[in-house]
Amino acid sequence: KLVCDRDLGGALHGGDALKGTKKWKFEAGGAEIGGANFGEKGVLFGSHDEHLYCVSFEGKELWKFKIDGPIYGSVSVSGGKTFLAGCDSQLHVIDVKTGKADRSVDLGGQSAATAAVLGDVLYVGTMKNEVKAIDWKKGDEVWTYKGGRNTQAFYSSPAVNEKYVVIGNRDNRVHCIDRKTGKMVWRFVTENKVDGSPVIAYSARDISAGGV
Which of 42, 57, 136, 202 is most exposed, with the fewest beta carbons within 10 Å of its own? Predict the structure, then answer.
């Protein structure tokens, strides 16, 4: 069992999850890196050096994919693809095995967040104060949410279930959006900017009833 973590010097560390021992260290050019995710054949992570890396479970580079700008968020993985939204204002749909892009979709603004994927649709916030729903297979925009005139950049990563997209904003609010229509359901006011990512939790009653 492999566990991975990063350090502030731009290195990804791989360790034995059962023994708690270090297995390898991969240097990513000295630039800060984002959180790691697992693909079929390796570990995926983005870097401020403008590259998405895929490293084998033994710590060897398999491939890397360059964009025009640093990558802040973690990468999402679903259906044999990885989804990268970075500071080049593009959503990149990349084959996990080959590192080749299937397509890129214009987001209309930079993103520092991790995208959430449910089925064929991906959800991500941007620094242009919008949340986008993108059909990643077709490359089409499903809807764009604008939170109002006081809405600021979305640095938060969204939480998604069958009905809702929940995301924090720097306008001191948590926004709940209808997943199908892109319309606001509610907004919750906090005491400061919300950059952290929400979590949707289910009770035992919810699960036994088939979810909410």
Answer: 202
